[in-house]
Design goal:
With 359 residues, the protein is of the alpha+beta class. The chain contains ten helices and twelve strands.
Length: 359
């Protein structure tokens, strides 16, 4: 590829405040060079030969409260998925399908409203309650992803309703309330799966901070040249993802990219770096990515459970109850804020930030 002024093109793209959707609205038929994916991503695209051999676990939470035998079965499935895949889907999680569908519609409405209205939420200040932009790591990542995002910081200090965009205000409040209940339940199951007291992870504030990232992946004129989201792991304790029918989400498993299919009414759950760190590698933060697509727009809503946006001095290291002579700590203690700073500095598409915290 001929040399080009990457820094200049990134700045020009960012200053439009119109995101990837703005490029399509302007009629582009060829994607700008900033979106060409990094060379190391290329050889992996065709490596989904394992698709037929592997499929991501789907865990039915129905009957969870009926009896201890059923609960133990569910905990066992959560443990196995968290140790091997770092990913699983959940059904019968308690959020009505109508709420899931309206949330996807609300995200679409936000991204497809008049650009001038959207621009009032445009910022790269991560402390704002509402953040609209394209690529949080625009200036640090090796390649730019074909997606726009609006993020809502919903806990522990939720925005005032009037600070939320009018087109999606009510559903963002309702969905956030419901997905936080799911998060609480997941932290109970994950605590039990680690052999800990049911409330252990909640008691150390894993569920305290909640960011809701609403992604919009416009149809791409040259999907083979770019990615919707580069290969990465999440920095959260846990991420709960609502995705639509378009598809494209893949997890790296046994050196194959495995599709995570759309299941109506299901939510995708994945272990984040911080849970891998405090579980001392017992649970795995799964590498994943999103392919660009000629169809679209693809809508997804990723709820991150972690506390980077609030000042807290709480230190997180491998949980003492999980350690022994045979299983010494593999990571040093860190604050979530410090971990977040390292993650932000690296951007997506590189190596995991966990390597920086190894003992």
């Amino acid at each position: 590829m001929a040399e080009y002024d990457r820094a200049g093109e990134l700045k020009a793209f960012d200053e439009t405040k119109a995101g990837v959707k703005g490029l399509l609205d302007a009629g582009v038929t060829q994607i700008p060079h900033i979106f060409y994916r990094a060379p190391e991503e290329n050889h992996l695209r065709a490596s989904s030969a394992g698709q037929t051999k592997f499929s991501i676990p789907v865990i039915d939470l129905g009957g969870l409260f009926d009896d201890s035998i059923r609960r133990n079965e569910i905990v066992k499935k959560v443990r196995e998925a968290s140790e091997t895949w770092g990913f699983f889907q959940i059904v019968n999680h308690g959020i009505p399908v109508g709420v899931l569908e309206e949330m996807k519609d609300g995200v679409k409405r936000f991204h497809e409203q008049d650009t001038e209205v959207k621009k009032q939420f445009f910022t790269r200040d991560a402390s704002k309650p509402v953040i609209y932009n394209s690529n949080f790591d625009l200036y640090s990542a090796p390649s730019t992803n074909w997606r726009d995002t609006v993020t809502f910081q919903m806990a522990p200090n939720p925005p005032k309703p009037e600070d939320l965009p009018e087109v999606s205000r009510d559903i963002v409040i309702e969905y956030s309330k419901q997905v936080m209940k799911v998060g609480d339940l997941l932290f109970e199951l994950l605590s039990e799966a680690l052999g800990l007291n049911r409330n252990h992870l909640k008691d150390i504030d894993c569920a305290e901070g909640v960011g809701v990232l609403c992604h919009y992946y416009p149809a791409c004129p040259q999907p083979e040249l770019t990615l919707g989201t580069s290969k990465h792991t999440d920095l959260s304790f846990v991420t709960v993802l609502l995705q639509d029918h378009i598809g494209g989400l893949q997890v790296l498993y046994d050196n194959h990219w495995i599709d995570i299919p759309y299941e109506p009414g299901a939510l995708v759950v994945n272990i984040g770096d911080l849970l891998q760190l405090i579980s001392n590698d017992k649970f795995k933060s799964g590498e994943h990515r999103v392919l660009a697509n000629g169809a679209g727009p693809r809508i997804s809503v990723a709820t991150f459970f972690f506390t980077a946006m609030i000042q807290t001095s709480r230190l997180y290291g491998p949980i003492k109850e999980l350690l022994s002579e045979a299983n010494p700590p593999k990571y040093r203690e860190t604050t979530v804020r410090e971990y977040y700073a390292v993650f932000q500095g690296k951007g997506l598409g590189g190596t995991s930030a966990l390597a920086n915290f190894k003992i």
